[in-house]
Amino acid sequence: MAGERNRNKGMRLSKLYSFKCLKPFSKEDHHSQIGSRGYSRVVFCNDPDNPEALNLNYRGNYVSTTKYTAANFVPKSLFEQFRRVANIYFLVVAFVSFSPLAPYTAPSVLAPLLFVIGATMVKEGVEDLRRRRQDVEANNRRVLVFGKNEGTFGETKWKNLRVGDVVKVHKDEYFPADLLLLSSSYEDGVCYVETMNLDGETNLKLKHALEITSESDYDQEEFRGGVIKCEDPNEHLYSFVGTLHYKGQQYPLSPQQILLRDSKLRNTDYIYGVVVFTGHDTKVMQNATDPPSKRSKIERKMDKIVYVLFSILIVIAFTGSVFFGIITRRDVTDDGKKLRRWYVRPDVTSVFYDPHRAVLASFFHFLTALMLYGYLIPISLYVSIEVVKVLQSVFINQDQEMYHEETDRPARARTSNLNEELGQVDTILSDKTGTLTCNSMEFVKCSIGGTAYGRGMTEVEVALRKQKGVMTPQEEIKESSTKSVKGFNFWDERIVNGRWIDQPNAELIQKFFRVLAICHTAIPDVDGETGEISYEAESPDEAAFVIASRELGFEFFARSQSNISLHEIDHVTGEKVDRVYELLHVLEFSSSRKRMSVIVRNPENRLLLLSKGADSVMFERLAKHGRQFERETKEHIKRYAEAGLRTLVITYREVDEEEYRIWEEEFLNAKTLVTEDRDALIDAAADKIEKDLILLGSTAVEDKLQKGVPDCIEKLSQAGVKIWVLTGDKTETAINIGYACSLLREGMKKILITLDSPDIETLEKQGDKDAVAKASFQSIKKQLREGMSQTAAAAATNDPANENVQMFGLVIDGKSLTFALDKKLEKEFLELTSRCSSVICCRSSPKQKALVTRLVKSGTGRTTLAIGDGANDVGMLQEADIGVGISGAEGMQAVMASDFAIAQFRFLERLLLVHGHWCYRRIAMMICYFFYKNLAFGFTLFWYEAYASFSGKPAYNDWYMSCYNVFFTSLPVIALGVFDQDVSARLCLKYPLLYQEGVQNILFSWERILGWMSNGIISSMIVFFLTIHTLDSQAFRKDGQVADYSVLGVTMYSSVVWTVNCQMAISINYFTWIQHCFIWGSIGFWYLFLVVYGSLPPTFSTTAFQVFVETSAPSPICWLTLVLVTFSALLPYFTYRAFQIKFRPMYHDIIVEQRRTERPESGTRTTSIVSGELPVQVEFTLHHLKANLSRRDSWN
Amino acid sequence: MSSNTASSSAGSGDSSAARKNSKRPKYSKFTQQELPACKPILTPGWVISTFLIVSVIFIPLGVISLFASQDVVEIVDRYDNDCIPAPARTNKVAFIQGDSPKACNRTLTVTKRMKQPIYVYYQLDNFYQNHRRYVKSRSDSQLRSPKFENQISACKPEDDVGGQPIVPCGLIAWSLFNDTYTLSRNNTPLAVNKKGIAWKSDKEHKFGNKVFPKNFQKGNLTGGATLNPDIPLSEQEDLIVWMRTAALPTFRKLYGKIETDLENGDTIQVTLQNNYNTYSFSGKKKLVLSTTSWLGGKNDFLGIAYLTVGGICFFLALAFTIMYLVKPRRLGDPSYLSWNRNPGGGR
């Protein structure tokens, strides 16, 4: 007991360490044992009230995923808001507005700020409330817990669970916490679990209880005295290190015994489990981290523009202050004896106007001016952009063209702040499996005992043949599709329908399919009514194998923890028999092992090791006598790989009892270890028995190309987007897929960079790692140089006018990539890739994918988009500017890490060319327009200032001004940002070149931004000077009244409202009733406001009192001024556009024109002629563009 | 969290359930962004006709405005300099602040028949009624009702005299214009109606009829005119006009109306009291007699501006027509694409 206590003390201390300063070290410490740092958790099973357990004070099962609590919502969300520079500025302004410095009243400043902040806070609040509701629901779910006092299971809420509780979970219920599986309704203590919420995989996973615990029924008998010592909470879903101390023994625990929170019990009536991790300690909660936040390039540029505006603001405020200072100083002359502008009483004044302290006064004026010209900084810009982006995402989500019928999945914009970035993608980095291909594997061919079977044609083969000009005989394909079974596309009259027993090598065939039927981790699911068997497998490859063996007569129909049962056709008698194999061990697949094996005892009581794996690891493990068909098999594998098929080598061996006994001991030892390097030791142990194998043959599984992939890639490359494929496949497979999806084309020069050269291989055999690395480095360097000179030579000989530009495709393998990504070579590598139109990286690891992505992103400074579907793409997706996840079959990790999720690769075309283009355009135009309208408004204030001796008097009533951004101009901008489109979706797709507008950032270049800004300033000048001169000092109405401050303000302000709204009307391209509504509605609303506000008592409305109804409206000159000013202010932009369309038309201008000129003719001419004519022009353009692009890239 | 993901994934997992409530986006022209729309594009025809239409509308408008302005007869007499006796002109400020008599006689000649009503204005120049300190220095509530007599916080330094509030307080009222004009035609007095020169809303709602001037101009420094403490503010139209502040440093304000026609050749004698100090800030003072047209007073600017803009548009229409004729560009011609301009020429 004393020892126990001491250990506890130590543990507590180490826990502190591990949470504080020493945390980084604990990761590296692979050899730490249970009880030491990082592995200090102790669970007293079924004894949560144990004083020691209470002492540990583990967190409860209450879960909160909300960002805020009721108490901290206000301060925290305010803090979030004011992290934006612009908002801080407005906050400061709001505070200062209570001082006499303010040029306008405090409420008129506060109101828009509160509105903007309030709107954002409400949005945050609603989102958080939704999260909270989900939390409450989860926390209040019921679960059966063993009550020590009652001695039975009783219901309780999830949130009341404590570490150590024993719970009972029924079928189709979620696990309330991370549990240790004690036993299940099955006798052998297995259960099936669906982990969709964790990793999105829909297949069932098998979990085993420890034998020692699985035998009891805990309804009858209390689980007593168990103590679990295990790792501390961490985020690794697939690892668990711990031991169970029970009945005086230690039992190692593995992930096999752990049931994770938020996964679901399936196909099992009930289980018993002990709560190990609760609440936020559970693996799923530990995993819940926020993805890296990404900001679009446009938004980053926008920040810069805001800084530019700030500097304009400071400059004009400063100018005003200098003049104000000079004028104010002159108000008193002759040492206070003479007052110049006596009517402002410069002799009795506050510091703000004191001529004796003119410098100080002008400093205060500077502050006033900063507030007054605050309209240059669009307060509502951020809010408007957020609103617009959310609505844009809704459109993306709602697009029917991006809905996939079969999987019932629409496209999903998971983050809305990258919409416009979609329109600027320069390079796409794509995964292959599951992204370009379906990841539904079909068993198409196999090679058994040196004979190749399977007559089907793969799509790649078809594509290759097409390229060579050989037409495929139709019937050959037809024949293969006589029987349609998902995952099985195999036809060979020699072996189907049980005919294989007549083959000379029937015994080999039998062994071959037995391996396929036994060596896997799939679970059969027998349909109760039809008796049909379907399989839940971890990978589609495996499912394809089990299905293939079923179709060929080796039907796997039942699995228990220790047995696998097959219906088999006996090759001698030809009769169906049931055979049961005792499953001894499963040596699981891992990406480092690249193989899996099972050890079984067959009904004849012989021990067999059945193994399948990648050719690279299997051939070296063959026994001397097992290489009989090696040459033929290798030949077949090569051919299969060329046809784009995935191959696995199938082997077996008999193991004698003695060898097995010795090995098993070692293996079990490794398994019971509880250190972090246990996996490595298990691998090493497995390695020892997986040797001296006998080759049976190989399988070839087709990974089908997704629908429309070649077309999509073609379109994207027409749009000038570069596509890289990063795949783990073999070089040959990758190249073939490249051809199949038209990434590589006939006539393209291939540059292959590889390390598979004889001298390096010999070096490798010698085992000198340094020498290998050095030689490899040199080799890659040389190959890169060669590639460079090739492309350079081609660029030199290519006459720019010549249309047949030599195109290059680069293929590089993973090993070479390691060196190419080296700091010293990455520049050259990048340069070379930029000269190639497509790049394929094969045999690359997930980490390399992410590294390549980072290199491209930072090296070129251009926008990258990564697309992938699997967990191995997560790094890449997070690294790229935009991550697109394919919500396909391979789980949800990629989707969870992505910014956009689509169901099929081909939707990328629409996502980029249509939505990306539109969103880019909309946001770019919207921001430009925002700056325009605020400058147009803000500068009228400045000009007026100059006519008011820079004293800081705004030209307008306070409330006009504060409503400007929020009410009179905001809706049309939002409509622009949400709805505008230059050309229709169909045309976007038809002329992919249009996409270059975004890639080259034409619509958001500094020229354009500054152009819009100067347009704003010019407009303000036109508005101001025309207005003050028409409403000069003379009478402005028939009744002899002269225009005063309020009339001038209203007239000028109306002119501004009209001008900016009409400017919007002439600069947008898409006019629906919505736009009409918003634009004319905004103007109408201004007049409505004027009438309503003007009818309030004069103490509220001050200068606006009755001004419209009584004074301005009956005056014709006000209306004439309005017309004059509005037209004049629009004239510069209109003229500019007319000239631009004449001399420098933009793409969309031309395309719109083309459609226009076409339309009247389409009635008379047949459409085929029209559509046949256009592509010729476009193709011509394309050639030029491509040439220019490649030249630009190579010279940059 | 778990419940949400569970329910969303259940749909896709179970195909039969999916059939029933498919996630297929509903079709509508709105969600598919296919709303019928007109897309204005600037074809040569559109460009030219827009310019033409604008010029066709603007030029006549300009002509009409000019005519209206020409119809107005306006007599402007600057007197600030001339009404200072020659010896005092070296120090005008001293003169205007001194006690010497300020009366001054001016003679105006009517050069064109002026139909009644003829409006009499005074025009000040370089007077910043829009100075922030000046504009704020008033109390609207005090003007409206005697109840709020003490709301004078905005009026500093003309807020009170010895603790007693000034009504009307503030710099604006304090600096009330105090030159007076007496007009006579051919030696017969010419009546100047000083009623009805203020805005109706001001009289009725902004200036109370129960508010009487108090302590006005009793401070240590006298600004401008004094007010009769027996007349309520709503009847003090000069004050009301003055307190409707001007937007720009040069402004006219209504002084009164002459309700008889003036014939060509009439001479008008003006006896004015030159009291108001514009000399310290070198502001001009002018007396203006003007008729009005439907467009108001005399100002050619609007007409000229209309004519100019119309002219520019006409010129642009012409220029574009010539350009399209001389160097036509086929519509939708791809060879004009912007990054394709110079074939062969690098960048």
From TrEMBL, chain A:
GO cellular component, one term: endoplasmic reticulum
TM spans (from-to): 85-103, 109-126, 305-327, 363-383, 923-944, 959-979, 1009-1031, 1051-1071, 1078-1096, 1116-1136
Active site: D431
Its membrane topology: Multi-pass membrane protein
GO biological process, one term: phospholipid translocation
Names of required cofactors: Mg(2+)
Keyword list, A-Z: ATP-binding, Magnesium, Membrane, Metal-binding, Nucleotide-binding, Translocase, Transmembrane, Transmembrane helix
Database matches in PANTHER family: PHOSPHOLIPID-TRANSPORTING ATPASE 8-RELATED (PTHR24092:SF165), PROBABLE PHOSPHOLIPID-TRANSPORTING ATPASE (PTHR24092)
Boundaries of every P-type ATPase N-terminal domain copy: 43-104
Enzyme class: translocase
Residues where Mg(2+) binds: D431, T433, D869, D873
Key word Translocase present: yes
Domain P-type ATPase C-terminal: 895-1145
Cited SUPFAM superfamilies: Calcium ATPase, transduction domain A, Calcium ATPase, transmembrane domain M, HAD-like, Metal cation-transporting ATPase, ATP-binding domain N
Subcellular location, record wording: Membrane
Domain of life: Eukaryota
Annotated function: Involved in transport of phospholipids.
Gene3D superfamilies in alphabetical order: Calcium-transporting ATPase, cytoplasmic domain N, Calcium-transporting ATPase, cytoplasmic transduction domain A, HAD superfamily/HAD-like
Catalytic reaction annotation: ATP + H2O + phospholipidSide 1 = ADP + phosphate + phospholipidSide 2
UniProt-recorded name of the protein: Phospholipid-transporting ATPase
Protein family: Belongs to the cation transport ATPase (P-type) (TC 3.A.3) family. Type IV subfamily.
MF terms (GO), sorted A to Z: ATP binding; ATP hydrolysis activity; flippase activity; magnesium ion binding
EC assignment: 7.6.2.1
TrEMBL record, chain B:
Cell location: Membrane
Mode of membrane association: Multi-pass membrane protein
GO cellular component annotations of the record: endoplasmic reticulum; Golgi apparatus; plasma membrane
Keywords carried by this UniProt record: Membrane, Transmembrane, Transmembrane helix
Transmembrane keyword on record: yes
Disordered: region residues: 1-28
Keyword Heme recorded: no
Primary location group: membrane
Membrane spanning residue stretches: 46-68, 304-326
Lineage top rank: taxon: Eukaryota
Positions with biased composition (Low complexity): 1-18
Family: Belongs to the CDC50/LEM3 family.
Record protein name field: ALA-interacting subunit
Native species: Raphanus sativus
Lineage per the UniProt record: Eukaryota, Viridiplantae, Streptophyta, Embryophyta, Tracheophyta
